[in-house]
Design a protein that fits this description.
3 strands, 2 domains, three-stranded antiparallel sheet, elongated, mainly alpha
Amino acid sequence: MITNTYTEFSMLRSAEAETAYQQEVISEGYAGFRRLLDGLTEAIKAAADADIPSLEEALAKAGRLFPEPVQFSPSWERIWAELEATLATKKHVLTAISPEERTGEWQVIMDNPQVVQEVVCYPGLDFHDAAYLYAYFRPQLEKSEYIRLQKIQTVIQELGC
């Protein structure tokens, strides 16, 4: 049994290897497909600028090998579109913010000023974690919601006694 990690998946080079992998995942069912999704998600989360093209190819290959992920779980009906949107947003962030500007502390803030609800804030992140959270949540925004990815320039923090 293979572990279905992104690394193994990305190393499939022939149609025969892809077919064998596809059959193994199908025979394992939910668990096998979940490992593939977890591997792809972790690869997107960790992706640096140079990783984006190979991830785009991997998502295209995954969609080709498993065109109906709903057969594994109804919640995965739109998983390929969701992962593609997350990757596209992360690509946008990596393109918009140069490597020289990525040092320091970052945060992601989400809010909908039209409703009474808590502001969601993920503070104290390094750039790659913040970029992934932004990329993950951005495609899911509802009407009137906004999301911000911002670098912290100055911080004053105190702890209560």
